[in-house]
Amino acid sequence: MVLVRNGHPAIIDRNTWEIVQKVMDERCEHYRVNREPKALITEFTGFAVCAHCKCNFTVKTNHYYGSKGSKATKFLICNNNKHFKQCQSENIPLEPFKEGIIKLTKKIKNNMSFFKELLIKGFTDVNESEKRDRISAIEKEIVELKEKLKTFVGKFDNYSTSVSSEIMSRISELTIEKMNLENEILIVGSAEERAKAIVSEFNKVPNVIESFEDFDFKKLYSRAFIKDKGDIILVVGNKDVSKLTLKTAGELSIEIPYTVRISTFRLRLAVYVNI
Ligand SMILES: [Zn+2]
Fold first, then answer.
1. Which residue among 49, 106, 134, 272 has its CA within the 20 to 30 Å range from the CA of 34?
2. pLDDT of residue 69
């Protein structure tokens, strides 16, 4: 997209536009209304997923007007709760969540050899040998079916026609099954290679992290899978979380205490390697 300023005759001239914006800002301030769009499109949009309904979380701003003046807090909210409460998920305060990502990243960096083991274990397809066995069995069956098909060549009676069409549909069924299995093996790839790539991303993160902007969290984690405040999983590897459940447990957990008015709460984050 290209933005060309003053590229066409203005519907409203710039001067009037700016005056109107100023008046709107003043009125918003007077009536304490937020002019920002309700759901901010942020770096977290499409990153955080609700474990209850598998919907994305978005960022919303809350405004408090207490005796100490106004204060805006941002939090992550399940898309299904944006207008009214439809999902049982909890809202996650954004600043503690960011702190949690920093703290977990530090913990991973301090436990790299354990993390590497987790990656290899998580990326190893335990079913790969089963899949390869099934592929061999399919190949053998296809060869046998093709042999059988040969005996019907040149025969056009009803029996021969129906049997050979049955054989052909079975061959195509098996071919599809084989292709799917081969694809699954290919997608998962080598555990060592995948682990190495992720370790190298963690190695690029500075040893002393001072702020959230010091590193690109999306290069390390593919998703945040949010169950509740006490159970947030940062996913490493495959970003498809459709197979994750409320029982999926993370490793290397950290806790972030935070206060709202006079009460203290805790966020708990852990990492999970997704095949
Ligand atoms: Zn939800």
1. 49
2. 64
Ligand 1 center from residue 106 Cα (angstroms): 29
Would the pLDDT of 251 be above 90?
yes
Task: State in Å: Cα 149 to ligand 1 middle.
Answer: 53
CA neighbor of 187 nearest in space, from 120, 129, 243, 128: 128
Quote the ligand 1 centre to 238 CA distance (angstroms).
Answer: 21
Angle between helices 128-150 and 158-188 (to 10 degrees): 160
Span from the CA of 138 to the centroid of ligand 1 (angstroms): 41
Q: Bridge partners of 237? A: 274
Cα–ligand 1 centroid distance for 225 (angstroms): 11
**Pairwise CA distance, residues 112 & 127, whole Å:** 27
Residue 99 one-letter amino acid: E
Neighbouring residues of 107: CB distance < 8 A, sequence distance ≥ 6:
252, 254
Give distance in angstroms: CA of 82 to centre of ligand 1: 10
Average pLDDT of the segment spanning 232-247: 95
CA distances from 62 to 1, 38, 73, 91 (A): 32, 9, 5, 11
**Residue ranges covered by each domain of the chain:** 32-123+191-275, 128-188
Q: Give Cα 214 distance to the centre of its chain.
A: 21
Report the predicted TM-score, pTM, of the whole model to 2 decimal places: 0.72
